[in-house]
Amino acid sequence: MARAYAKHALNGSSSSVEVAIPLPALKGRGVSHRHAHRFELDARSAFDDGWGSLDETCLAGDDRPRVDTVVTWETARSAITRNQSPDIGFNLGLNPYRGCEHGCSYCYARPSHSYLGMSPGLDFETRLVAKQNIAEVLAAELQRSAYRPDMIALGTVTDAYQPVERELRLTRGVMEVMHRSSHPVGIVTKGSGVERDLDLLAPMAEQGLCAVYVTITTLDARLARILEPRAAAPHRRLRTIRALAEAGVPVGVSVSPQIPFINDDMEQVLQAAAEAGASRAFYQVLRLPWELAPIFRQWLEQHYPDRAERVMSRIQDMRGGQDYDADFSTRMKGSGVWSDLLRQRFHKACARLGMSARQSQTRSELNTALFNPKNLGRQAQLF
To answer: What's the total number of domains in the chain?
Structure first.
């Protein structure tokens, strides 16, 4: 059970004590409340007022009101994002959605919701924005005379195959544009919904136009339920790897993020993925930029209070004594002895399993020579 702390004066004295306000978990959600974003002028925190509210909170448990997912439509002005970070292996990205219903407690993209005036906490996984015209805008951009083809990484900020995609099918529209124009695409996902698009991915794979990485953070189903509550279960993601491999789609596994003393089964994940058909792999260590640091700390206090400080201490060991260091040379893998140990474990396991160890998803493996925007026909003209 999480603990939010508030300063509460006793007997009118100037001294104060920390009063623990238990915060019950929300079923199916990665975080339990709306964390203030960094642009807010006012912030609120739980406080024991002495009138029994603390007891009521303790007894609330599973009776807390359910928080439903709300989707807002957005008319996109552009589809392709451009990346200049030297530690990322692709230049172009595309995201059909803002926010992600998977609710992963560790997601480095949570702070992006602050730019929308929404919380990186509960809002990120319950208040989603869908780019309703994303396929049409993409088609228009691909047909510009100045455009030069390069791999587009699909789902670089939020998962393109999150649960709402089953109904909205925005990613499907994007993939149809990629398929018609023979444009290379790389996908990283936790969603089994990627199997729906095998009719597009398989023929693209034959031409060297696509690759998919399935993220498996752990094989522990109980841990996965609280760490990434609305993502496909670990065994289901292994089935996805198998389905992709059997269809001839180049498939790898991302064992990210590595969280000290939480998901300590990297080698087992890599072996299971290799047996399912994954031929390549990459990993990253936990990143805690901006508001994500207090969000993840609360998750630790809620689910692993016995080791929360130990986990954060090890994270800081890999981040130069801080919760996070954004330096391009170390932000993905960390630094120091513990980072070196993770790297050795990863590369030795990949070598033993015959898997190609990658730094990240990379553009070099895909074919750009077949790109033909003329096959998009009148779609961009209509837009």
So the answer is: 2
pLDDT tens per residue across span 257-274: 999 999 999 999 999 999
Other beta carbons less than 10 A from residue 129's beta carbon: 20
Angstrom CA distances, 271 to 202, 209, 247, 286, 377, stand at 24, 26, 20, 21, 45
Closest CA to 131 of 151, 111, 160, 105: 160
CB atoms within 10 A of CB 14: 5
**pTM of the entire predicted model:** 0.88
169, 162 Cβ separation under 8 angstroms: no
| Same-domain pairing of 26 and 79 | no
Pair 39, 23: CB distance under 8 Å? no
114 lies in the same domain as 261: yes
Domain membership of residue 213 as a residue range: 70-382
CATH number at residue 351: 3.20.20.70
pLDDT, tens digit, for every residue of 346-366? 999 999 999 999 876 665 689
